[in-house]
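1st attempt posting a full record on here, be nice pls
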Amino acid sequence: MVANEIKELAKQTTHATKQIDEQVNAIRETVGTTVEEINTIATIIDEVNTISHTIVASMEEQSVTTGEISQNVSSTSKSAERVRGICEENVKTISGIFANITEVNTSAEKTEEGVQRNRVNIQHMTGAIEKMYKMVGRFKI
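the predicted structure (as tokens):
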């Protein structure tokens, strides 16, 4: 009777160990996929940052050019007034765009920080899974 109970417990332990092993493997696959997706997001964020910096540089160049145009067109009062009006609109537009880009940069930086935190958490989780996998691997039947 005891031998049968021991055999049954051994079967149950083997089954449970297989289930745990399957779950750990599934978690590893999910973590691997998540890490790949996070790396893709980080790459996109880097691209957005690069584009944002390019836009800011272009806006600065446009601002300098607008100033030079204002100085050269000051020969007549009418032309100067028209140019001034256009420049004011451009400055407002540029200021709005610059504010939006600043917001995008801030959001990108916050997202990058979140990605970094997620990477650290995933590394910790991976370590814990590996420890658990090693512990389960010690159960020999």
